[in-house]
Structure to design on (210 residues):
């Protein structure tokens, strides 16, 4: 029996996932978490085979929580289930240690299939994401400018592109305004841009924000 932890801050989403999963006879939801800190508590207290993790929960970022899970339980399979399209976070999260990435628009049977695959220690990658990975690994591939950003820089860039202020980003990431301002300076430098407006246009053009 595949033992699963569901991590999502919306009760209705957790209940929907539970109903989909428990139709299958070879898996069971043994616990739930509402935020990243609860995820880390649960994996220390209990034994799971798979964590289904939403990267957009309150508090610490999904990328941070994923890295902490990999550090605490490197053998644990983590399936990212997100509202964000693959092109926004898919490759970055797989590189950070996720076992698979699905959007919340995926069919129920695809979710069940992904759980079975990653519970065996394998990766679950959709065909479109596999194509992006293949391109990224090509010797002559020059990725878009945002691929040069670190994980934290990418998070800050994404929030700026969503229209958040430096103060709002600092509060969201539990960092100082000065630190976020420094990240913004680095981001603009790496992306060869001079203003937030340029960054927002770029993110919209490439579909990095909704």
């Amino acid at each position: 029996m595949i033992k699963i932890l569901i991590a999502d801050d919306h009760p209705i989403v957790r209940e929907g996932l539970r109903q989909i999963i428990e139709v299958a006879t070879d898996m069971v939801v043994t616990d739930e978490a509402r935020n990243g800190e609860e995820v880390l508590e649960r994996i220390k207290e209990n034994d799971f085979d798979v964590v289904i993790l939403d990267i957009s929960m309150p508090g610490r970022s999904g990328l941070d929580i994923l890295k902490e899970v990999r550090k605490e339980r490197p053998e644990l399979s983590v399936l990212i289930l997100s509202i964000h399209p693959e092109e926004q976070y898919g490759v970055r999260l797989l590189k950070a240690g996720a076992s698979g990435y699905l959007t919340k628009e995926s069919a129920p049977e695809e979710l069940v299939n992904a759980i079975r695959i990653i519970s065996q220690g394998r990766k679950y990658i959709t065909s479109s994401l596999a194509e992006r990975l293949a391109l990224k690994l090509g010797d002559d591939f020059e990725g878009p400018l945002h691929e040069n950003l670190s994980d934290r820089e990418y998070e800050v860039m994404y929030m700026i592109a969503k229209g958040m202020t430096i103060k709002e980003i600092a509060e969201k990431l539990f960092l100082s305004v000065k630190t976020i301002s420094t990240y913004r300076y680095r981001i603009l430098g790496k992306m060869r841009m001079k203003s937030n407006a340029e960054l927002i246009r770029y993110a919209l053009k490439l579909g990095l924000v909704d």
Summary: The mean pLDDT is 87.
